[in-house]
Design brief:
heterodimer, A: mainly alpha, Serine Threonine Protein Phosphatase 5, Tetratricopeptide repeat, B: alpha+beta, Alpha-Beta Plaits, two-stranded antiparallel sheet, 6 strands
Amino acid sequence: MSDKPLSKAVIKHHLDDAYAAEWGRSVALLLRLTRDLQTAEDCVQDAFESALVYWQRDGIPDNPGAWIRKAAKHRFIDAARSSRTRQQALQRLSYLDQPSVQNDEIEELDVLIKDDELALIFLCCHPAIAVTDQVMLTLRTVAGLSPRDIAAAFFAKDEAVRTRLLRAKRKIRGAGIPIKLPEAVEIDKRLKQVFAVIYLIFNEGYLASRGESAGRPDLAREAIRLAIRLLELIPNNNESHGLLALLLFTDSRTPARVTTQEILIPLDEQDRTRWNHEVISVAFKHLERALACELPGRYALQAAIAAEHAKAIAYMETDWSAIVALYDGLLEIEDSVIYRLNRCVALSFSDSPLAALEQLAELEKDATLESHHLLSATRADLLRRAARTDEALSAYRLAVDQADNAAVQKFLQRRVRELEAKN
Amino acid sequence: MKYTFILVATPGAEPAYGSAEWKDYAAEYGAWNEQAAKAGIHRGGEAVQPPERATTVRKLSDDIKLHDGPFAETKEVILGWYLVEVDDLDEAIKWASKMPLVDRGFGGIEIRPSVDFSQG
């Protein structure tokens, strides 16, 4: 503890740090007492609010997380009106207050809190909850984003996000979704869902699928933080390493992927010296761990593809045959139109644009991507490279109409102008 | 917790009543029933008559209205229900997944948690 009184700004800074690091774990621990997500969040929120006052008076505690959890626990016990609820809470608390663990200031119960935190993550990503709600719950409950932040991230109204979160919490309670670690046989399946949620969060942040990006919380960063935390909670999981590697490789290109006017710069035109090479070297370490198994998963393989790009000094120097082979591996795991589309692009370089157009024609029969701008944009690009300019132009124009992201639209319009100038 | 299993499928998805295939299918239900009874989770269940014989009761503007037919106009119809009592939704999902209707891909089960009136 510090002796000097601290300024509000300094306290706020420490609180923000504590919030990012301790929110999820604190909610997880409180959930053990409250058995209700909303109550747990309310107690932790109250604790953070009182911290603003107490820390200013008494200084920053040595272990802010333990302070928050202790305050939140007391808040819950004080609030438990009926003696029966209080009794139950005290019983659940008893494991925290064994004689051997007198000192709340040290993380004496780290292992237990880790299990609680993991159970909380699995709870938020439970398949009985709608996927959008899983994403929002994870951001709210595990990552500690406020409903307002989440609303900004998804271009939604505050009120709509609050309603969704409340409905999801009611479903958890009402339907009896268990607050516990999944059974060993279920873990892999349930983990896949957790990966999917983290990946969705990352993509929402990375692609900002609608509109401009100003004032939105950094969801890509939140996703990376969640992936790192997951790896700390379940170490040595190959696919967790794969997911983190994929996120890091992708994130490393952020400084080079949009112009100052928010126009998307495609991979082939990015200034590779501006990629974050520190991040890339960390990503390679995780990729190595991800591939150190017999059957690498989908995130490991996608990370391996991203790694091929990171390795190449220029777009045309990329080992496209390796990428085609990696997509073949992905297609064995899951027959996804996006994988097939990306394989086409790789094939257009390792073989020829015409060969890729043939494959793309097959793909276009698939109705699921019918109106997706990616399909038209890819066809347009292949036609342009095959010097079939008129066809390319109409495909680009179609793609502009279909895209719902301003940065992507601006890029496609640029292509249209370039081709018109040539024609 | 108590959960109601509502069995749903598109008419004709299951083997025809009385056919040889149906006999195997029915035997699988027998096996599920036996397992569930042994596990002590079986609280009852019925097969219901076809949708043409269904009546839906609703209150509209304070008036009880009867509707001749099932609850919604979808292709799937309710075939029956089970009431099971297990610890949580994960257990319920596990049992529902083992149900032949689901297991064989003929239809689905809507799991509805029962209202716990003791919680006020």
